[in-house]
Amino acid sequence: MHATKIEEGDDREDMELNQIWRACRKIQGAIFRYNFDICADLKQHDPGCSGFVSEPIFSAVLGKYRKVAGMSETELRDVTDYFQIRDGRVAYRQFCKVVCSETLQKSAKTDLATGLEWNDPWHVNVIPQPEDRRRLCLILLKIAQESNIPLMPYFQDYELIAQNVGVVTVSHFSRVLHFMKLPLSEPDFLLLLRRYMKDGYLVNYVAFLKHIDNIVSYLKEHQLLDNSRDIIKDFPGRLVDLELSQLPAVNGCKVVHPIFPDACNHPKKNRSQCDIIFCIQNYVYKNQVRTSEFLESFDALRIGSITKNQFERALSNMGVGKYLSQRELAVLVDRYLDPMDINRVRWRNFVDEIDAVFTIKNLDKMPQCVVESPLRHIQEMPRPGAVDWQATPQSMRELCEEAMAKIRIRIRNRRLYLHPFFRSYDKLNSGHVRCSQTNQIFRTNGILLSNQELDAVLHRYGNELGFYYTKFLDDVDPAEYAMPSMVSKQQLQECPPFARDHVQPEVVSEETIIRILTSAKRQALTKGLAVIDFMTDYDRHREGEILESDFRRSLDNSGVSLSEEEVTILCNIFRSPRRTATVRYRDFCKALDEIFIQLESNMADQVVTAVPLLHLPNLDCVDCFLSFDERTICSQALMKLARKPDEISNLSQVFKDFDRESCGSITQNQFLRGLTVREMHQMLSSREFEAICKCFGMKRGLCLEFNYREFLKILDVLFTTGQVKRNY
């Protein structure tokens, strides 16, 4: 027992001496590189030349050069304790002999030193915590198991360029590990740096590779390299097998794909023809690619076929070639092979099939067809990095459904609208946000989920780009309570052909008809639309009648925005008496043209004259209506302000400074500021000010602004006519 304790004590002393010797070597290297005299600094604090200084002075002098030498505080403390005598003083002369002796003994006849004579090639740092040492051993063990080729050449390439001896930078060390596909989490990588860091910014790769080679040789010697998942009983520390730590969760999102996926995102298994077509359709729809423009340039004679090489070049120019392997490209060529010439590809068939993701060919011949864009299989394609939700465990799916039910109840009860919260973080409009931002949005809106429920939701909607909030909101927040459907499914169903003649249109009041026509006239006037130009194309025989479906389509194309019920009422009003399925569009266009021209007929000359009309929009609104008392107050206030018209007060310049868009209106606050600048606000009371703002108010967007041009005209008229109130 005593012998064992003595041996343990001797080992501990040897370890401490090695640490002190390495710390002294660091100081020697720093003295040679930076040429500072640490002994002279210590002698300044020893006037009597006794060879001893106090411990605080010795620690302060060494602390000044600690970072330069790359020493830790533990090493500094060990050196101080080693050269300290019983009375507490430190024998700095002995320290100087150890550190500076080799430098003082150098002669002029010796060869030029490089400074590397004092560097320890096996320099490593001490890891004091036992659990960190155990984790470091596990990391080195797993790296030794994963590295199938020597690592030395990758470090030596850098050493030839940087002219270093046994050290590389931290960034190059990280690049080598990344290139060799040795996945390390951030804590594990920092632990490696703590062990092999040298001089504060370099990594001693020689010591690192030596430890790796020792582990590999041990595993080969005991035939444990192939069966690396067994427990290594004889290895120092009795290491248990441990899986390599995965990449850390980036902002709460775990990487589902392999740690180093293929840059082209090639699938591991062979894809069928349908999978290849779906992949190309998805790429074309996302990037809005016109497929025909890349292929028709190779078909100079417009025969509809090109060679195989030209087809492959067109796919590469389109950007699809990097997603297809040679086998998949051959499968695609076989699908569109020209039966008349097996060396050519029918590119038009390929374009028609790919462009089906946007629309249907010959859609003008099918007016009742409903186009779905994009197609459902394109919408439901899994995004890169997303997991197969059907293959996930049943417990996780049930947990996710419970979390989704909680979120739906919270949204429905509190009437939450989560779209603005997600869009505020999505600056690129990609439909994705970070998972930490998702958790923050949930907490902001009071959606409290447990860690397991939150992980299940993030696992379902997470991918390489982050949290797919667009799909999440479609599933959890359909917003049926906020946006009711305008047309029900029963209204979309058309009447059968045999029952159309028996359907009687509903009686519509004259006020409703005038309102619909006024709305259509207003839109045609403000947008400057010629609606008849959109409807004439459907009237091939110039009969003045078109089909009801064509009438609806032309209204949509022209930009006249009306609801489904309003368009139905217009169709019933202008329906042709000869054919119930047609609409007299010319009569409708004449009713719209009444806002632009007025038809005057001369019975004597039998001439019809079209007189153009100047339409002045009505700027009045419901909020600008004045009662009798308000009109009286407004007239008296205007008579007061007429004493200082624009000629005297020059109010127009103040108002024009506020009106940067020169639209003729400013806000009420700006109007009050303008009166204050000209010292005219004292003439008005609060009621008079509100009456004037209401009298000259005009709607601009959602705000009620002040029409200062009309206001200044009224003041000039009152001042000119002498209607001025002298005493106020």
From TrEMBL:
A Gene Ontology molecular function term for this protein is:
calcium ion binding
Highest taxon listed in the record's lineage: Eukaryota
Taking every annotated instance into account, which residue ranges of this chain make up the domain EF-hand? 646-681
Transmembrane spans: none
The signal peptide stretch is none
Task: Please give the name of this protein.
Answer: EF-hand domain-containing protein
Q: Which organism is it from?
A: Drosophila guanche
